[in-house]
Amino acid sequence: MVALVDCNNFYASCERVFNPKLEGKPVVVLSNNDGIVVAASKEAKEIGLGLGVAIFKAEDLVRSAGVHVFSSNYTLYGDLSQRVMETLSLFTPKMEVYSIDEAFLDLSGFEGRDIVAYGRDIRATVKQWTGIPVSIGIAETKTLAKIANRLAKRSRKANGVVNLTGSPYREQALAVVPVENVWGIGRRYARFLNKNGIQTALDFSRAGEVWVKKHMGVVGVRMLKELRGIPCIPYELAPPAKKEICVSRAFGKLVRTRDAVCEAIATYTSRAAEKLRKQRSAAGALMVFIMTNRFKEEPQYANSTALNIPVPTDCTHELINFAFRGINAIFREGFRFYRAGVVLTGLVPVGQIQTDLFYVRDFEGSAQLMKALDRVNNTMGAGTLRYAAAGLKQRWKTKFNKRSPRYTTRWDELPPVKVG
Fold first, then answer.
1. Does residue 35 carry a pLDDT above 70?
2. Is 360 exposed, middle or buried (0-12, 13-18, 19+ CB in 10 A)?
3. Average pLDDT, stretch 341-364?
4. How many CA atoms are closer than 13 Å to the CA of 369, on its beta-carbon side?
5. pLDDT tens digits for 244-257?
6. Within 13 Å of residue 285, how many CA atoms lie on the same side as its CB?
7. Using CB atoms within 10 A as the burial measure, which of 113, 225, 234, 323 is most buried?
8. Which of 412, 416, 420, 406 is nearest to 80 (CA)?
9. 117 Cβ neighbours under 8 A, 6+ residues apart
10. What is the C-alpha separation between 62 and 26, in angstroms, rounded?
11. Mean of pLDDT values over 206-229
């Protein structure tokens, strides 16, 4: 058996953990620079504030409906996600963290238990220990568990847990799920299947295997078998290392000067280097890019450049130096820039770096410096130590005007307690 545990409206739920007054109220979380809705509570969706809505176009609705609006607070969300996953790991010896708010639990060997009651125990424990509500779908395969989870979120009778393992109601469950909502079927395949009379997950599960393989390949056959209860998608207990790392942001205000762009690029490169070291990789190439806002009626310019790194590195200062070479090559005066970014590519494991006889680097010293840097920032908070090239005031910084405190990771943002 497989259980998919999915946090309900995760970002909105995180905001409610330290502000219980938000329970039952419409809550939305905005993208960088407080632009569009990237997460919404059930109450917000019911009044039309769903994903992708530009918040400035919905100001009247926000005021009239008393919507609580927050800037994205990824530090808080990431920490609460880790707490949820640590709690879930106590309920099974094998678990796959699928995303920031989803995890697959292997329940093999639990067949003799009341599995729905066990699911409700998981749900209650996560809620009690972290404050985050979850829904749980259980079935023989990951794809069916996804469908069961979808039903668990929508059914009041289910009380947050649906078990489709050997269920006589499985066909009824598949019949109410549009085929485009089956895990792995995107818009293109959905349009194709709809044209061929396949509208629901049940229709797809009844399709001929030969026909599916002809039109959708091996991946399609895998999805078909999963819907029929035959496991084809294994657990990924150790997520594969990323093949490239990108850090990009829109500026809080348009930027004209080379110095401001360089500060931003140094900041983004530092963050990318942290991610690089976390997965124990080194970068063999780097790309930087800048662009103006194409939606404004003013001179437009966008450009990028890629640089090879002679010996792959995970050292922040080396990567910043290469990034600055790139920016100096593509920066042009006379434009107001809207976004910049850095992409690290050609990633290799740090233990497999091919050195160069003519490239001098203090490998041991650089490694010790990066360990010290990461140790301080992990202990004292992100950005406690940073390179001077990233600037001090950072007036270009992405806007988070409505961000809640980072309650769990910053001493100076702990929730206040009134005594007496």
1. yes
2. exposed
3. 80
4. 12
5. 999 998 898 899 99
6. 9
7. 323
8. 406
9. none
10. 9
11. 93
| C-beta separation of 416 from 345 below 8 A | no
Question: Which conformational region is residue 359 in: left (phi greater than 0), alpha (psi within -120 to 50 degrees), or beta?
Answer: beta
| Single-letter amino acid code for the residue at 26 | P
Using the Cα atoms of residue 188, residue 194, residue 198 and residue 199 in order, give the sign of their dihedral: positive
Q: What is the pLDDT of residues 286-332, one digit of tens each?
A: 999 999 998 889 999 999 999 999 899 999 999 999 999 999 999 99
* Cα–Cα nearest to 145, from 229, 51, 247, 52: 229
The pTM of this model reads 0.81
Q: What six digits make up the tokens of 320? A: 């910043």
Q: Which residue has the tokens 């690029």?
A: 265
C-alpha 191, offset from chain centre: 27
Q: By the 8 A CB rule, do 286 and 273 touch?
A: no
Residue 357, pLDDT above cutoff 70: no
**Would you say 157 and 147 are in contact if contact means Cβ atoms under 8 Å apart?**
no
Looking at residues 51-63, what average pLDDT do you find? Answer: 90
Assign 3-class secondary structure to the chain: CEEEEEECCHHHHHHHHCCHHHCCCCEEEECHHHCEEEEECHHHHHCCCCCCCEHHHHHHHHHHHCCEEEECCHHHHHHHHHHHHHHHHHHCCCEEEEECCEEEEECCCCCCCCHHHHHHHHHHHHHHHHCCCEEEEEECCHHHHHHHHHHHHHCCCCCCEEECCCCCCHHHHHHCCEHHHCCCCCHHHHHHHHHCCCCEHHHHHCCCHHHHHHHHHHHHHHHHHHHCCCCCCCCCCCCCCCCCEEEEEEEEEEECCHHHHHHHHHHHHHHHHHHHHHCCEEEEEEEEEEEECCCCCCCCCEEEEEEEEEEEECCHHHHHHHHHHHHHHHCCCCCCEEEEEEEEECCEEHHHCCCCCCCCCCHHHHHHHHHHHHHHHHHHCCCCCCCHHHCCCCCCCCCCCCCCCCCCCCHHHCCCCCCC
Q: Are the CB atoms for 289 and 340 separated by under 8 Å?
A: yes
Separation of alpha carbons 247 and 244, rounded Å = 10
Q: What is the C-alpha separation between 145 and 151, in angstroms, rounded?
A: 10
Instruction: Pick the closest to residue 236 from 94, 31, 23 (CA basis).
Output: 94
Burial class (CB in 10 A: 0-12, 13-18, 19+), 327: buried
User: Taking the chain, what is the end-to-end CA distance rounded to the nearest angstrom?
Assistant: 51
Q: Which two tokens stand for residue 28?
A: 């939305």
What the block records as the tokens of 31 is 């993208």
